[in-house]
Design brief:
Layout (H helix, E strand, L loop, with lengths): L5 H13 L1 H4 L1 H4 L9 H29 L1 H6 L16 H12 L5 H24 L7 H11 L13
Helix pairs in contact: 4-6, 6-7, 7-8
Length: 161
């Protein structure tokens, strides 16, 4: 296990882009003697996510000139030699680990997580409206979000009275 070492910060991007679900484990490993500083990890993950989106946008623009239909179907190549998966939410994955597995009680991280989820629900509501889906309630929005998410869990049943 590598602690808060400069090599970690230099080479983690390659792993994150090659395999996001494996790469995020660099920051969430329980085998660390000391957890990494959450603010530093979140800043780093934001930079990696923005770089991945920028690379995909640039590569997508180049590909569109050659073959519009194929470019829309293929993920962009990364400068580190892999396909860029911009659908993976590094920040969400790390905050989930921080809150649910490390049991971090800092309200700052809980607020970031809540705002991230709220944004996703709003985005899903806009998508549903554009696609003509009828969304009558927050519960229905949650069901749609859960159907599209690999991480969301069903809420507990309401207490019977």
């Amino acid at each position: 296990s590598v602690g808060d070492d400069p090599a970690l910060w230099r080479f983690a991007e390659w792993v994150l882009i090659k395999s996001p679900s494996e790469g995020i484990k660099i920051f969430t490993s329980d085998s660390r003697p000391e957890p990494l500083p959450p603010d530093k990890v979140l800043d780093y993950l934001n930079r990696v996510a923005h770089a991945a989106v920028a690379e995909q946008t640039a590569a997508g623009s180049q590909q569109r000139g050659r073959a519009q239909a194929r470019a829309d179907e293929q993920p962009a190549e990364s400068s580190v030699g892999g396909k860029v998966d911009v659908a993976f939410d590094y920040k969400q994955a790390y905050l989930e680990h921080l809150i649910f597995y490390q049991h971090n009680q800092d309200p700052k991280y809980h607020n970031q997580f809540a705002l991230l989820l709220l944004k996703k629900v709003r985005d899903l509501k806009l998508i549903a409206e554009v696609e003509g889906d009828d969304v009558d309630s927050d519960e229905e929005l949650f069901r749609q979000a859960r159907a599209r998410s690999t991480r969301a869990q069903a809420p507990p049943p309401p207490p019977s009275s």
